[in-house]
């Protein structure tokens, strides 16, 4: 039952939030500026296969989910929430505990695709002044995880892969653990600080069911297309299948608050996160059942 451990970290974050006001700022800063870049760099440079097609798959999945949402809702916040998945802070730690460390490069690649979507598409949607759209490009190009991604690709191109052994292996392992812990704890902190509006629960649950159902169907269609074109290996299917089960990225409310000066997505993220956690538990148990 080791895949339940990440949910313990959520509880720890929920508890920490009651006593330390700045915990979310400290945790998020450490994640974005230190531990995610370290894990991204070491994962890519030590992985022997290509990950570009998985990055593209993840990005296209979110983009198509966005356009599908236009047929269902007339609210930009709902459109973004429908398409933006929490692959990094929740998907990675849960995947590691379900499948083991071998899943890391695959989920990191999916996370990079999601990060591209959030740092370009989502920001463009939230910006009212079209003349400032270059801000989103600057935000992407200067984001530490993106810089680590580019540097890792350049390193791999000119120097090849590196072997994770000895002290470097322990450094990588510790960094992944800290990243997983901080990411899950941040979700707990966020859930504690953003109370759920009761009158919105029913609508958000319906939204969550639609998102999971449509996301699962789209995922299988898109994956089969990539597989038929020879762009993706069938062996990564079970690892990537976790994506439609993941909740709305908590970064939505951060971007919304910055660009729109509002926080309408807070209730959506809170309810959808709880909804997703339930289905992730079921997903994990089913996977473990088939593997036993």
Can you summarize this structure?
The protein is 75% helix and 0% strand. The chain is built from 13 helices and no strands.
Structure overview:
This protein is mainly alpha-helical. It has one domain (2-188, 200-291). The protein is 75% helix and 0% strand. The protein contains 13 helices and no strands. The model has no long low-confidence stretch (mean pLDDT 84).
Radius of gyration: 18 Å
Shape: globular
Helix/strand order, N-terminal first: HHHHHHHHHHHHH
Beta strand count: 0
Mean pLDDT across all residues, rounded? 84
In helices, the fraction of residues equals over 70%
Give the tally of structural domains: 1
Our measurement of the CA-to-CA distance between the termini, rounded to an integer number of angstroms, reads 12 Å
Content-based structural category = mainly alpha
Oligomer: single chain
Major beta-sheet overview: none
Give the helix/strand layout.
Layout: H1 5-17, H2 23-46, H3 52-69, H4 76-83, H5 87-99, H6 104-126, H7 134-141, H8 144-159, H9 167-193, H10 201-228, H11 237-240, H12 251-260, H13 265-291
Helix pairs in contact: 1-9, 2-6, 2-8, 2-9, 3-4, 3-6, 3-10, 5-6, 5-9, 6-7, 6-12, 10-13
List keywords for this structure.
292 residues; mainly alpha; 13 helices; 0% strand; 75% helix
């Amino acid at each position: 039952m080791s895949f339940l451990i990440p949910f313990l970290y959520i509880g720890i974050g929920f508890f920490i939030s009651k006593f330390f006001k700045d915990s979310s700022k400290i945790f998020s800063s450490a994640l974005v500026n230190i531990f995610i870049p370290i894990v991204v760099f070491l994962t890519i440079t030590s992985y022997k296969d290509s990950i570009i097609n998985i990055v593209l798959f993840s990005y296209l999945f979110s983009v198509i989910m966005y356009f599908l949402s236009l047929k269902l809702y007339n609210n930009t916040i709902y459109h973004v929430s429908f398409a933006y998945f929490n692959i990094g802070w929740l998907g990675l730690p849960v995947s590691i505990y379900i499948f083991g460390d071998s899943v890391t490069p695959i989920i990191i690649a999916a996370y990079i695709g999601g990060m591209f979507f959030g740092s370009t598409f989502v920001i463009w949607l939230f910006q009212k002044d079209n003349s400032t759209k270059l801000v989103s490009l600057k935000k992407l190009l200067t984001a530490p995880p993106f810089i680590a991604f580019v540097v890792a690709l350049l390193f791999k191109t000119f120097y090849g892969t590196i072997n994770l052994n000895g002290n470097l292996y322990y450094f990588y392992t510790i960094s992944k653990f800290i990243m997983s812990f901080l990411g899950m704890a941040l979700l707990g902190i966020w859930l504690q600080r953003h109370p759920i509006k009761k009158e919105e629960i029913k609508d958000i649950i319906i939204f969550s069911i639609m998102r999971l159902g449509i996301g699962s169907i789209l995922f299988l269609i898109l994956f089969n297309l990539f597989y038929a074109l020879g762009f993706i290996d069938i062996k990564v299917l079970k690892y990537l299948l976790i994506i439609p089960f993941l909740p709305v990225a908590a970064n939505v409310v951060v971007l919304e608050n910055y660009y729109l000066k509002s926080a309408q997505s807070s209730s959506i993220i809170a309810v959808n996160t709880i909804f997703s956690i339930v289905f992730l538990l079921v997903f994990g148990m089913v996977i473990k059942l088939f593997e036993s």
